[in-house]
Amino acid sequence: SAVISQKPSRDICQRGTSLTIQCQVDSQVTMMFWYRQQPGQSLTLIATANQGSEATYESGFVIDKFPISRPNLTFSTLTVSNMSPEDSSIYLCSGRGLANTGELFFGEGSRLTVL
Amino acid sequence: GQQVMQIPQYQHVQEGEDFTTYCNSSTTLSNIQWYKQRPGGHPVFLIQLVKSGEVKKQKRLTFQFGEAKKNSSLHITATQTTDVGTYFCAGPGGRTGTASKLTFGTGTRLQVTL
Q: Model confidence over A45-90: pLDDT tens digits?
């Protein structure tokens, strides 16, 4: 199984600022995804992080607001830009292993609070 | 777009009682996965079901995939306090509907008391 490390684990940010979340996987994964989870809610897929190319965004999410990079198979970043209190949430990085069993491994999550 | 609903939203049981959560998709699924998220934790994979009518067991947990591959259930026999958490089903989906992405259900939060 893959171990996924995320940082920061939590942060308190000011309105209008941007924050970058880093995600490191300890082994190669075929696909990496970024999810958002409001407290007590389900997970909403933000985008698929594609290695060496632009991420594929889901409906309601755009690159200008959530730029994503994936320079190699084991590392990705998600930036939350020009934050507002509505962006307060838990952001989760996930990856699917090479075995392609379908199982997703998740990072511990980054809890952002925007004041 | 694809929607995956779960009922109930929340259930509180006493230790030893059984628990069932139901998952319903608006579209036919090629497979369905189940995850458990402990309070304050991240989702952890439990199982994947692929075949129509498939039933799989993991100790006290029984998972079932519907014949039409649009619904699934998770049943826990004789719950324990370690079962506390939110249970999510998830099916292939996303904006382009490709099998590589997962759309998570609304989740069922289970609380177990002594």
A: 999 999 888 999 999 999 999 999 999 989 999 999 999 999 999 9
Q: Catalogue the E-assigned strands of A50-103.
A: 56-57, 68-72, 75-80, 89-97
Is the CB of A56 less than 8 angstroms away from the CB of B95?
yes
CB B79 within 8 A of CB B112: yes
Question: Mean pLDDT, to the nearest integer, of B71-85?
Answer: 98
CA–CA separation, A30 vs A63, rounded Å? 22
Q: What is the dihedral of CA B58, A43, B94, B36, to 10 degrees?
A: 0
Q: For residue A43, give the nearest of B96, B100, B104 by CB distance.
A: B104
Under 8 Å between Cβ of B16 and B114: no
Output b/e per residue, A51-83; b: 16+ Cβ within 10 A: beeebbbbeebeeebbbbbbeebbebbbebbeb
The answer to whether the Cβ–Cβ distance between A106 and B43 falls below 8 Å is yes
- Per residue in B31-60, pLDDT (tens digit) is 999 999 999 999 999 999 999 999 999 999
Q: Do A107 and A7 contact (CB within 8 A), yes or no?
A: no
